[in-house]
Structure formats: C-alpha cells, structure tokens
Automatic annotation (TrEMBL):
Highest taxon listed in the record's lineage: Eukaryota
Keyword Metal-binding: no
Pfam families according to UniProt: Ferritin_2
Segments forming a coiled coil: none
Protein name, UniProt field: Desiccation-related protein PCC13-62
Annotated organism of origin: Capsicum annuum
Signal peptide extent: 1-18
Keywords assigned: Signal
Record's keyword annotation contains Membrane: no
Length: 307
C-alpha cells in the first residue's frame, strides 16, 4: 500500500508541477467559480472592470435613479460616489431596456470580481457636462444649449452609444492575449452580452436615424457618425469605430451604406488595446492623461502603469 502511494506520487508529481497555472473551473450548472488565473490574464481581466463599473452606474442611475451603493454596495467596495449621475427622462420601453442593461452590468462586475480580486469602484464623472464635453469634441464646437444625456430617450441612447461599444472592442482585443480557459470563457461571455447591448442601442438609434436631435437640427445618424469619428481620432489607431451610416466601401462587403452594426472589411468586430481605450474614455487622446469619465484615472495594474 505504502509503496503504491509512493509510486503514484512519483507519477503524479512531475505531471502536476508541469502546470504552472493552478486553475480550477467548477461548472455548477450555469454558475462557475474560477480562481488562480495567470498574472497576465488577471491584468487583462481586471482592466475592463473600469468600464463595467461605469456602465453599471450610468444604466442603473439613468433608469432607476440609484446605483451600486444602493443595489450592491459590496461591489462598489468603498469607491467614491459617482459625480452627478441621475435618473433620465425616459419612456417606459427605454427605461425597461436600460434597467436590464444596468442589472446585466452588475452581473459583469460580479463575474470579474469573482474571478480576480479587482479593485473598488474608481471615481466616475457621469455629469451632464462630462457627456456634453464629448459631444462638443465630436462636433468640434460647443453645442448650444449643452447636450444633456438625461433629457430624453434619444439623448440617453446617444450617450449610451458612447459606452458598451468601447468595452466590446476591448474584449475582442484582450481575447488573443489570454492564456487560461477560465479567462477566455469569462471574456467570451462578457463580449457576447456587451455586443448584444451595443446592437440593441444601435437598432433603437437606427430606427430613429433620420430624426433630429432637439434643438440642434442634427440627425441621430450624424451624431453617431461624429461620436465614432471622435473615438477613432482619440484612439489613434485608424478606423475601429463606425456610425450608423458609412461610405459604401466601409459597409458590409463594401456594398451598403446602412451600418446597423460596426465591423471591419470582413464584418468582424474591431479590437482595441487598453491604451487605446484609455485615450478614449479619458477624452484626452493620451493613456497618461486622465480626465473625461475618469477624473482620477482608471484602476488596475495596466491603467496605473501609465499614470
Ligand atoms: C466632471 O466633468 C465636467 C466636464 O468635463 C467638469 O467640468 C467637472 O469639473 C468634472 N467634475 C470633477 C469633480 O472632476
């Protein structure tokens, strides 16, 4: 018996030590508990927590008038209260959709924090002025009166257009750099739902594409085109963002101008690195210059390495 155990250990030891990564992936019906992903995966997974916090707060506040501090304070983990988040004036349909998005984002924050330690909620600037600044930058001059994301359905949908898409390009960019199955499964799951949210937002805006955003006399489509062009400029890495109507050569198969979903020449989702994402969400075009939605900068090792 003792000999047998000793012999088994001899066989098992070299095997188990050849796995530098100690992973456990327990499938418990639809739930999973995952631990010990390699360090490089941890950095790549914790980075998008910055965006998920912002989405959770913006969607919960916009639809329900409260955020994580009321719904799931343990996830905010003592992070500062978001600046000037508020409830939006929404129709029942849009409020319902956005509330679903809000709770989905809470799930995403939870999923990331259950997988890696993560960090408390960073300071988020969700004030009207913060979104108005994005729109002014997108048009290259101040809109008068300043854009108010919380004023009505169309404004809120346009403000929302600014967010999940950036997260989804980040997940596409992170995927090929991941090593562990646990991290890949998590990122695929997050990407799927973020893309879905982006598609819903784009479809709702597409339906309203020819309507003017009041009181500017500028169409919804033009707003999306301008916001996407701004993100391309800030990201400094070519075209990775497209509005609802494009030149024919940028449409699917170079054959159509309607652009309900953004995609490259193969209609595959664009990818972005954390650096490109920081340049966009800081509104500064520089990963080392915080501002915009993150006045104190984003959290986590990757973002901190630039500050
Ligand atoms: C929030 O953003 C607006 C617009 O950029 C800015 O004027 C305001 O000072 C910011 N608030 C904080 C506390 O950073």
């Amino acid at each position: 018996m003792i000999v047998f155990v000793y012999f088994s250990l001899l066989i098992l030891l070299p095997l188990s030590s050849s796995y530098s990564v100690d992973e456990c992936f327990i499938n418990d019906q639809n739930n999973y508990v995952a631990r010990n992903v390699p360090k490089s995966d941890v950095d790549l997974i914790e980075f998008p927590l910055n965006l998920e916090f912002m989405e959770a707060e913006f969607f919960l506040w916009g639809s329900l008038g409260y955020g994580l501090d009321k719904f799931a304070p343990e996830l905010a983990d003592g992070g500062p209260v978001p600046i000037s988040a508020q409830i939006a004036k929404l129709s029942p349909l849009i409020r319902d959709v956005i509330a679903q998005f809000g709770f989905q984002e809470v799930g995403h924050v939870r999923a990331i924090k259950d997988t890696v330690a993560g960090f408390p909620r960073p300071l988020l600037n969700l004030s009207r002025e913060s979104f108005a600044t994005v729109m002014n930058d997108a048009f290259g001059h101040p809109l008068e009166p300043p854009f108010d994301p919380y004023a009505n359905d169309i404004n809120y949908l346009l403000a929302s257009y600014v967010i999940p898409y950036v997260g989804l390009t980040g997940y596409v960019g992170a995927n090929p750099k991941l090593h562990s199955p646990t991290a890949k499964r998590l990122v695929a799951g997050l990407l799927g739902v973020e893309s879905g949210q982006d598609a819903v937002l784009r479809a709702l805006l597409y339906e309203r594409g020819r309507e003017n955003v009041k009181p500017y006399g500028i169409t919804v489509t033009e707003f999306t085109n301008r916001i996407s062009a701004l993100r391309n400029k800030l990201g400094r890495h070519g075209i990775k963002d497209e509005g609802l109507r494009v030149q024919r050569e940028f449409g699917a198969e170079g054959s159509i101008r309607g652009n309900i979903l953004a995609g490259d020449k193969y209609s595959l989702a664009y990818d972005r690195t954390p650096e490109e994402i920081l340049r966009i969400v800081y509104g500064s075009g520089q990963e080392s210059k915080p501002g915009g939605f993150y006045p104190n900068g984003a959290e986590g090792r990757i973002a901190k390495s630039y500050l």
